[in-house]
Amino acid sequence: MRGPAAAENPPGPPNAVDRVDYTGAVYGSLLAASVVAGAGWAESFSRLRLVLLLLGTGVVFWAAHVFAHVFGERIADPALSREKIWRDLVAEWPIVKAAVPPALAVAVSPLLGLGPEGTLWLALCVAIAGQVGWATVAALRAGATGRLVLVAGAANLLLGLLVVLLKGALQH
Questions:
Q1: 163 with 34: CB under 8 angstroms?
Q2: What is d(CA 119, CA 57) in angstroms, rounded to the nearest whole number?
Q3: Each residue of 11-36: pLDDT tens digit?
């Protein structure tokens, strides 16, 4: 996966459009939604624990993606450099960044007067909105037609709604 933080291209014309891969941000948002849905299983939960779980899971998956990519590159190119490893670290960082908005939603939920159930739903909606938003931005930046942009957004909304359906079906 590559992410918004890895917007650097090989040298090209000064007006070349940056090629950015939003895969990590989309994936990280779906991962955050899954974490929130899974947290709903607990009889009670601490907001702090959920914030830490969201951010910690993002970091663990980020590290796993970097590790897999670095070893994949190592097989293809035994002369793997620190610069290549650094690029992988940066490129995968959107997986972690995608966990921040749902974690912030959990953190501010008491200010909104939300109880545990409302907090979970807010964080889940924020994660899904991030997923749909990143997918839509990716399609737009790739120059997709209006129809394809709608398909990308709708497909990601469907994936997010599947998480919501699973949450609802398995908790009641």
A1: yes
A2: 18
A3: 433 334 455 678 889 999 999 999 99
In three-state form (DSSP H/G/I as H, E/B as E, the rest C), the secondary structure along 31-87 is: HHHHHHHHHCCCCCCCHHHHHHHHHHHHHHHHHHHHHHHHHHHHHHCCCCCHHHHHH
Task: Write down the pTM of the prediction.
Answer: 0.81
Q: How far apart are the C-alpha atoms of 124 and 109, rounded to whole Å?
A: 12
Average pLDDT, the chain: 84
The greatest distance separating any two alpha carbons of the chain, rounded to the nearest whole angstrom, comes to 57
Report d(CA 50, CA 45) in Å as an integer. Answer: 7
> What residue ranges do the domains of the chain occupy?
23-171
> Between 100-108 and 23-39, two packed helices, what is the crossing angle to 10 degrees?
40
- Number of residues that this document lists for the chain: 172
User: Taking a C-beta distance cutoff of 8 angstroms, is the pair 54, 122 a contact?
Assistant: no
Amino acid letter at 106?
Answer: V
